[in-house]
Amino acid sequence: MQKKLYAEGGAKNVTADGSTQNEPIQTAPAILNVASMINRIIGNTLGPAGRNYLTPLGITNDGALILKEIRFDDPREDSLADVFEEVARRQDADAGDGTTTATTVATSLTPIVLSKVANIEAPVPGYQNVMDIKRQLEVECKEAVSLLQKHSAPIVSVNQLVNIAQTAMENHECSTLLAETIYKVGKDSNTSVKEGFDGKVTVDIVPGIEYPLKIQASSMFTNVTRKEAVYMNPLVIVANHVFEAYSDLSLFMQQMMADKNAKKEQPQPIVIIGKHFSVQFTAQCVQITQLTKLPILLLSCDGLKDDEILDIAIFAGARYIDSHPKEGQKKFELRYDDAGECKELLAGKEQTSLIGGIGLQQEVLVHGEPETMVQARIVDLKKLASTEQNPNTREELLRRAAGLKGGIATVYVDAKTAVDRYYLK
Questions:
Q1: How high does pLDDT run on average in the chain?
Q2: Which of 288, 358, 397, 414 could bridge across to 385 with cysteines, CB 3.0–4.6 Å?
Q3: pTM (two decimals)
Q4: How far apart are CA 268 and CA 77, in angstroms?
């Protein structure tokens, strides 16, 4: 196979200077040619006995990946192929599977729809315009979904989910592992696939949220070898603030020392998630830890959006403090009650996980009904996603909502050869 899966395109003419140019092509025949070619290639991959294709990246039967490699010589036909690739992309974004089926349905409908479209230049009685056909398809789509819903059944056991996964994957060992993972973290979980390093497929589940927060100083590692900091039941401060001097913590420390619950034999670790920490502030925190044995961990959230920092605060049950001038807050004031808490915090070289934030239990009133802080945030994010026009932004909102609710599952895929690894991924 060449670098791309090239399909037969339109004819070419040779010009006087020896170069080639495409002949004019009629729109309908071009669409039919592209749809027919894609249908033949993608349709062959359907089902358990479906054909695999060798792409420049490896062997696969995934419709969306194969579509990216199907190219036509004629640039106009090539642009039409992008339309069917968009069908696969949207299906993948909405469901995560069924890209081949969606593409096959789209290419199969193409000749049927085109046969009903009226010629604009010479309309014929009995034909329909494009918008009429669109409305008809939408009505028929709702009817089809309604019929399918009558036969749908809720998943109540992991065995049911395993059976479904095995119809979608050839490798039963992997399908069982994935089904068990999704059943454990929930259908709203945030699941990703990455390359592994131990020659097999493994899963790592984090029952919390995960963000790229950076440890401010190497002296704050609890495990220097692994370059990570792990704390149990830490207080969590979340502030979109630039910490310049230790005086920013004066009121917080005074109130903590006066609090009877804070006077324990083992000091409760303090985790500060902030926009930026000055060298002076960082050095003072390190010195306090060395002198008093009070663990203070500084995590920089620089690079995160304000809404993402708010997600962290809500999960931890902390008051989100934003000292940005646009908020009109003239003075930064951090109180002891502003801190949240989580059961465990794991800060590594690239990612930081917060597990069991008290925002999962703390309740607020939403339209007169009690809801946990996290659940109320999830509802807000899903509401924003339902009205968002940008598909990338919409996907990001849903990803954040999934992370807050179901935790994070990472599937690490490795195999004996690069070809096997790519195919499994």
A1: 82
A2: 397
A3: 0.61
A4: 65
